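Supplementary Methods S3. Complex input for the beta-D-glucopyranose-bound model.
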Amino acid sequence: MDQMWQVATTAWEPAAIVGNGNKFMIGNGYLGYRGTLDEFTAEDYVAVNLLGLYDQHGDAWREPVNAPNPFFTQVQVAGQPVGVKTTPVLAHRQWLDLKQAVHHRKTTFDVGGAQLTVASARFASGADDHLLAQRVTLTCDQALTITLTSAIDLNVWDINGPHLTPVTTTATGASLQTGEGDTVQIHTHIAGLSGGRQVTTPTLLGTKWTLSLQPGVPVAFEKMALITTSHDVGQPVFPPDYATALQAHSQAWQRRWARSDVVITGDEAAQQALRYSIYQLLLLAPHHLEMSIPARGLSGQTYKGAVFWDTEMFMLPFFNYTDPQVASKLLHYRIKTLPAARAKAQRYGYDGAFYAWESQEDGRDGVSDYNVTDVFSGRPMRTYFGDKQIHISGDIALALWRSYQQTGDEALLTDGAAVIVESAKFYYSYSYWKPDKKRFELLDVLGPDEYHERVNNNAYTNKLAQETAKLALTAMARLATVDPQAYAAVCAQTDYPQWQARIEAFAAQLKVPTPAAKTHLIAQFDDYFGLEDVLVPAVRERLLKPNEYWGGAYGVAADTQVIKQADVVFMLQLFAQDYTIETLAANWRYYEPRTEHGSSLSASVYALLATQIGASDWAYPYFMKSATVDLTGETKQFAGGVYIGGTHPAANAGAWQAVVQGFCGLTDDHGKPQVHARLPQEWTQVSFCLQQRGQWYRALVTQKTATLTPIADPAQEEDHGHA
Ligand code: BGC
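Predicted complex, serialized as structure tokens:
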């Protein structure tokens, strides 16, 4: 198979269990199944992570629920379990077929001199959200008697569980209940093997066979599982067989790839990493409900399975251009959770909408005031992500408006205007009027760089707040023209007529970042340049323990100019048209050596701004860092003692942005797409599809040329090809 469509490993090491579980994920937006091996159990981080179903166990953090694992497969020879952890391995290969979205493994074991090969394939159906399918084949080079168990494993990996209590169980299924009263149902069906004994232990539900393997004669079975929850409507049914299910699944993925693949000529490493990044995004896209994508995707319960600004600021452009229906679901999730954002603002004593920093299904904030642990004392540390990271509301407002501009989807204006107005009201009420300076200021905030807490006038935050106020005025003016009835409704809902003058004053008189005349530098916040001026390696050397938290009251970075992630650079990237090239370049150069890139969100922003400056050679390593984040697994696994591992969809999407919006210069000119050639030197060509306002285009960018050709929906073309 084409290496560009495959991600594989032939090494088997215990230390790679967690990383491979992330790397070899399959999923369909409804659920994610970690890339673990068939014989693995909860202690090996097996998880079937469900989107949008959360539960709180005791006083622990509320987190998403993992369904039982339908595919636990155990082979025993002479009473001994066969598996990579216990049996000598002669050959091993685990791989993802990215085109078909199928996970494979093939391992040959030495069992007392006989060579036993276990091969399996599995997928999370792209055609039916509830369906998981698995095919297992066993082959031996000599006659061998084995026992084979295929079971639902009820013992799931939880960070803060357990969440599920069995209500009813049979050998082929179970109904379970969460502590919050939701239910999860699982039904399985096996074909290919008959007979067998039922296995029903408190944690395993399945069948066990004793089989006599003959040399070279494969024995295979196929298993399908349907998973549903009390949030679902309708009852899915089993497809007739694995082959039929696989066909429907691969056709769905073919359509998705037809719309979203990006073909890079001249750089295989970049091609593979980007395609893998797109694969990760496709497996997360929610098609079934208005919900958004958690910061660690569906790879587990890290970050409480919560939705962050990661979606709006990083993932949304990919979906807007390749699957606007999914983009609309992501945005409507924020529209739907406006009441929770209003409640949060009220709780802190403000007007308007203050969105959750770590948003769960109904918009409640999963954030804890003590989000990290002090590794020296083991005590929880007070962090201010939830109460001070106010840029979140502006991120959402900006994303809503830019998506509206790009897609022309009027529902985003009629349904989203209230979000923008309420966010503007929030910033006004958060601000202070400084009579001596005749301006508004935003004091005591946390910008994107989380290492400097409670700062004043963070450049990113203030610019976003000002933009939100401007957008509220623009959105309402437009709504009044295009839909007077909706305008009246939003006025009634937000009290806009009373607020309009205040929002106007705020937009006109808020302190916004300005570059210094000589240096062109913008201070990340008031007095930033007064902090100790050291670079990242020097600060890293000051660490006493590897998992020490760099921020907080006495973190190593807190009193220095070293920052966690793109902050001023992000602001400049988003609003590049408001600044000169000198300002963009000077700040990129200044902040880059002071940025730890301690968040996977950072690298792609540096890549994008570099392309905007016209420095694609600066951009390239940051693009690659972003695109390979889940391939190499070189990211922080712990922050202040807390596990933060998993997949990184914002970085995956940032890699896409770096290529499509960066190197290929895709921009939106009032609803019309444009491309500009700024490819890295070794690349000869990039081609991809995109849609804007219902029209599909093929973009073709070379070193010197950039063209867009209107085309029919590539997914339908794909269908015709199969007709
Ligand atoms: C970053 C945030 C990000 C979150 C989830 C944190 O480490 O600082 O900006 O939203 O991770 O990805």
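The mean pLDDT is 96. The pocket of beta-D-glucopyranose is lined by residues 295, 303, 308-310, 448, 450, 564-565, 599, 601, 650 (CB under 6 Å).
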